[in-house]
Write a structure and sequence with these properties.
Radius of gyration: 22 Å
Pathway: Amino-acid biosynthesis; L-arginine biosynthesis; L-ornithine and N-acetyl-L-glutamate from L-glutamate and N(2)-acetyl-L-ornithine (cyclic): step 1/1; Amino-acid biosynthesis; L-arginine biosynthesis; N(2)-acetyl-L-ornithine from L-glutamate: step 1/4
Shape: globular
CATH architecture of the largest domain: 4-Layer Sandwich
Low-confidence stretches: 179-185
Distance between the termini: 41 Å
Organism: Cecembia lonarensis (strain CCUG 58316 / KCTC 22772 / LW9)
Mean pLDDT: 92
Number of helices: 11
CATH topology of the largest domain: L-amino peptidase D-ALA esterase/amidase
Number of domains: 2
Family: Belongs to the ArgJ family.
Number of strands: 15
Pfam families: ArgJ
EC number: 2.3.1.35, 2.3.1.1
């Protein structure tokens, strides 16, 4: 049986249809039976949705939470006082029904920006469904589907590992398809674990892992108003509490957290609106990991690179030009560059000099749906990985009529 977030001790959830969306589930509730350590990261867009503002305040109170409630179909962004009151009503209703403090509620929304928030539908949905919370695997599937917008499939992940004689469970769900950019884009990610860990270390592990997963993906270069990744750790595995970065438990937890977030991030890219290619970008032999990641982001977000990948054009000059726009010292005369599909890479540049290669053969490789672009800087030993899509005519058509 495939495991999901309901296999984490003490986690119950439900996904329901409230009528905000016509055909899909549109309300998700993830509940921990006991208060949990919590951490979250939020959009870097200066225009922030009402639930983002509220949830950030709640998490910052004491780094604790017990429930995440999310509606789909309406972003509750740029909605003014009416939207703020709607988000507060979500918090108040959920807290009262679960008999928990309001600051232990994390709220999220996703959907169209600027539409009046359907407070009555969402609040009634919470009232009608909160008693259905379940640890059944089917409930985990329901909640994963209830946060989707333009996504074509649900995005779930689950890992487990051993620590302190205990089996630790880690489960997560995410949504995202368009408005994806390496700065926390129009995406939501919710993760739960039964690990017993200090709140500050949980926050540190989350930020480290997000920087190397969700912040390394791109579809179209646009950040959104509602982005959020939140994690709750309820301690029900009953391991000795992790309080030090040197603890082997912290090291393996951070590794597994990054693993599950990377898995979810790559699922988002593979579901990119209108995309026909999944592209892995790797920069290696760099002076630092930060430099490598900046270059990955510069290449993967280049419109010219994306369109070249769509057209199966081995135009390596666009890749090098994108590196020159990354805002770092970049000496192209030292680099080696390779392009290809998931099986075969072809070198097109050696120490900054063009390499003779069969363009027709490379164009054939670029027909594949999974491509790779690898760059060696030859200035150090660090590397960075990222993932993106091509930019297609289907993407343009889809987003040109998004609201109509």
């Amino acid at each position: 049986m495939i495991k999901n977030i309901t296999n984490v001790r003490g986690i119950k959830c439900w996904g329901a249809h409230t009528g905000v969306k016509s055909m899909r589930r549109d309300l998700a509730i993830i509940y921990s039976e006991v208060p949990a350590a919590a951490a979250a990261v939020f959009t870097q867009n200066k225009v922030r949705a009402e639930p983002v503002e509220i949830s950030e305040k709640h998490v910052n109170v004491n780094n604790r939470a017990q429930v995440i409630v999310c509606n789909a179909g309406n972003a509750n962004a740029c909605t003014g006082e009416q939207g703020r009151l709607g988000a507060e009503a979500m918090v108040k209703t959920t807290a009262e029904l679960l008999n928990i403090p309001e600051e232990d509620v994390i709220v999220a929304s996703t959907g169209l920006i600027g539409e009046p928030f359907p407070t009555e539908d969402v609040v009634n949905g919470i009232k009608e469904n909160i008693h259905k919370l379940s640890d059944n695997t089917k409930a985990g599937s329901f909640v994963a589907n209830a946060i989707l917008t333009t996504d074509t499939f649900a995005k779930e992940g689950f890992v487990e590992f051993q620590h302190d004689g205990k089996t630790i469970h880690l489960g997560g769900i995410a949504k995202g398809s368009g408005m994806i950019h390496p700065n926390m884009a129009t995406m939501l990610g919710f993760v739960v674990t039964d690990l017993n860990i200090d709140e500050k270390l949980l926050d540190k592990a989350l930020r480290h892992s997000v920087d190397r997963s969700f912040n390394m993906i791109t579809v179209d270069g646009d950040t959104s108003t509602n982005d959020m990744v939140a994690i709750m750790a309820n301690g029900l595995a009953e391991n000795k509490k992790i309080t030090s970065e040197k603890d082997p438990g912290y090291i393996i937890f951070r590794e597994k957290l990054q693993e599950i977030l990377t898995h979810l991030a790559k699922l988002i890219v593979s579901d990119g609106e209108g995309a026909s290619k999944f592209i892995e970008y790797k920069v290696s032999k760099a002076r630092s990991g930060e430099i490598a990641r900046k270059l990955v982001r510069a290449i993967s977000d280049s419109t010219l690179v994306k369109t070249a990948m769509f057209g199966r054009d081995p135009n390596w000059g666009r890749i090098i030009a994108a590196c020159g726009n990354a805002g770092i010292n970049f000496n192209y005369k030292k680099v080696n560059l390779f392009v290809g599909d998931k099986e075969k890479l072809v070198q097109v540049l050696e120490k900054g000099q063009p390499v003779e290669f069969d363009k027709n053969y490379v164009k054939k490789l670029l027909r594949d749906s999974h491509l790779r672009v690898y760059l060696e800087l030859n200035t150090g030993n660090e590397s960075g990985l990222g993932w993106g899509t091509d930019l297609t005519t289907d993407y343009v058509m889809f987003n040109s009529v998004y609201t109509t």
